[in-house]
Amino acid sequence: MNWKSKALRNAAGVALAIALITTGSFVAARFHDGPLAILAGGPFKTGALQDATEEPDWAFLRDYPTVEFQLLDPARSRTTYIMEYDGRIFVPSNYMNTIRGKLWKHWPMEAVADGRAILRVDQKLYERQLVRIEDRETVLGVLAERGRKYAGGASLPLELVTSGDIWLFQLRARPGTD
């Protein structure tokens, strides 16, 4: 066997190993208690469900970099940014008009179809309803907060939302849980 054949065989072996490790990571993440960094994870198995009779003061999330949330259908969890604005909390989904968004981002469409979700912060679970928001006043406030928190104070243009590049969701109290 010449050196070119050996090199080709070794390269094929490395490519196969990388593919198996990558696939294994995605599959393993689906059984994990919550997300693994950027990989969607399984349903939450830990955390204390919080009393839903009174809406929390979400101001404590103002400087939290990320939180975890899980949709109930399908039961998968993710890590995301969170913005607190006017006493309410919001999560974004970026890249919605890109190839990356079309291939990677399925949860926003799932949230529009059935927005039942659980927010997990510091091992506390909050039953929520994800509702897509598009009203100008709220969007501008949420974008300003996002700019402050994640873009070094830079203002983010309204067109990011009106063009559909970014979808914003409010995490409202879930009907029937209070």
Summarize the structure.
The chain has 178 residues and is of the alpha+beta class. It has helices at 3-29, 99-104, 107-113, 136-150, 159-162, and strands spanning 48-49, 67-72, 75-80, 83-85, 88-93, 116-121, 124-133, 167-173. Helix content is 33%, strand content 26%.
Please give a structural write-up.
The chain has 178 residues and is an alpha+beta fold. The chain has one domain (48-173): Electron Transport, Fmn-binding Protein, Chain A (Pnp Oxidase, Chain A, Roll). 33% of the residues lie in helices and 26% in strands. It has helices at residues 3-29, 99-104, 107-113, 136-150, 159-162, and strands at 48-49, 67-72, 75-80, 83-85, 88-93, 116-121, 124-133, 167-173. Strands 1, 2, 3, 4, 5, 6, 7 and 8 form an eight-stranded mixed sheet that branches. The model has no long low-confidence stretch (mean pLDDT 88).
Strand content: 25-35%
Here the CATH topology equals Pnp Oxidase, Chain A
Helix tally equals 5
CATH architecture name: Roll
What is Rg?
20 Å
Q: What would you call the structural class?
A: alpha+beta
Using DSSP, what is the number of strands? 8
Number of domains: 1
List unreliable stretches of 5+ residues: none
Mean pLDDT: 88
Give a short account of the largest sheet. 8 strands, mixed
Q: Helix content range of the residues, please?
A: 25-40%
The CATH homologous superfamily name equals Electron Transport, Fmn-binding Protein, Chain A
SSE order: HEEEEEHHEEHHE
The termini sit apart by: 72 Å
The CATH class is Mainly Beta
